[in-house]
Amino acid sequence: MQRRTLLKLGLVSGTVLALAGGAAMLMQPGLVQRRLTDAGRALFIGVGHAILQGTLPPDPAAQRQALEGMADRVDILAQNLPPHVVDELSQLVGLLGSSAGRVALAGLSTGWLEATPAQVMAALNDMRYSRLTLRQQAYQALHEIVGGAYFSEESTWAVVGYPGPQDI
């Protein structure tokens, strides 16, 4: 193939993916009334399960409770963000919550809750080290939101050796 043909093919493919992802996001927003949809909760619980390995409680029931609590704190975060940031977060979560968006942006063929933590971490690392800035930004957003929401709970501090705020 000639270089021009490859460039045209790449441009057309990118446009089709963007339109498909945008259409899927319009059908399923990531946030409804500033709260995560079921797909949004699945996204953050799956990503949290992968990112927080080693800091989650060892008991599966306690892990599930900790991840549900983290997703609840993402809801609290969304309720306190400016409207334009909520819109961007809803777009990202809506896109990654859809099958087409998850495959296109994260490269993960199975659902966030069905994938193993290793599969989710591999997808996240592909996003993190991607040559596409959009994928890197999506990774950064997920990483920061999960970490901030999880470690905002005082009960998680001991795992990382943080004694809590010091009295001054």
Outline the structure in words:
The chain is mainly alpha-helical. It has one domain. 67% of the residues lie in helices and 2% in strands. The protein has seven helices and two strands. The termini are far apart. The mean pLDDT is 89.
State the low-pLDDT regions, or none.
none
Strand content: under 5%
C-alpha end-to-end distance: 68 Å
What percentage of residues falls in helices of 4 or more residues?
A: 55-70%
Integer count of domains: 1
Mean pLDDT: 89
Strand-pairing-aware structural class: mainly alpha
SSE string, helices as H and strands as E: HEEHHHHHH
Strand order of the largest sheet: 1-2
The strand count comes to 2
In angstroms, what is the radius of gyration? 18 Å
Molecular shape:
globular
Total helix count? Answer: 7
Largest sheet: 2 strands, antiparallel
In a nutshell, what does this entry contain?
By secondary structure, the protein is an all-alpha fold. It is built from seven helices and two strands; from the N terminus they run αββαααααα.
Q: What is the element layout, followed by pairings?
A:
Elements: H1 3-27, E1 31-32, E2 35-36, H2 38-51, H3 60-79, H4 83-97, H5 99-106, H6 117-128, H7 133-151
Helix pairs in contact: 1-4, 2-3, 2-4, 2-6, 2-7, 3-7, 4-5, 6-7
